[in-house]
Amino acid sequence: MDLQFDPECHRRRSIRLQGYDYRLNGAYYITIVTQDRACLFGEMVDNDMRLNDAGRMVLTVQEELHEYYPGIESDTFVVMPNHIHGIIVLVGAGPRACPGSGQPPSFGQPRGVAPTMSLADVVHRFKTLTTRRYIDGVKTWEWLPFRGKVWQRNYYEHIIRDERALNRIRQYIVDNPVRWTEDMENPAAINANRSRRDCP
Prior knowledge:
Blueprint: E1 26-33, E2 42-45, E3 48-51, H1 53-68, E4 72-79, E5 83-90, H2 119-141, E6 156-160, H3 163-175, H4 187-196
Antiparallel strand pairs: 1-5, 1-6, 2-3, 4-5
Helix pairs in contact: 1-2
């Protein structure tokens, strides 16, 4: 019997490398999902992501991260109804790593001074900034309420080790909206899959 992956049955496990220093200069692919996969940031219309005010806020925080925290650059990034995909580049205390071309200086191996913030620090501060602004939006502009927390506790990350991988992941992020109907974070797709089979 050929069973497809079901995120409700097969809990996502961390693939963080034991002993790897996530403060090293390099590029990292991340996915962060809302609590309960709640669609807080807009909706898909004809394979196009239509951000609401909350979604635009999340995008703004991502664009401003390097202003708050030197040593961080953002590469390709997308806000989906209930999650984000992005590439975070840790560049350390030296010059920006991506002038013009957006290419990071190294992929997973240190060059120069390691930044003081780890990838976990970056994700934590992104979650904190967006959560504070989201709470303000709920109180002031009646944004959709959330249960307990805006974001799930954990997140997915992948070390980008070379330019080929970088370009492949960039394309995956750009194409994410057109795959929403099959997206493993799409509640409708999850419910459809669960209705066709039971968890093994």
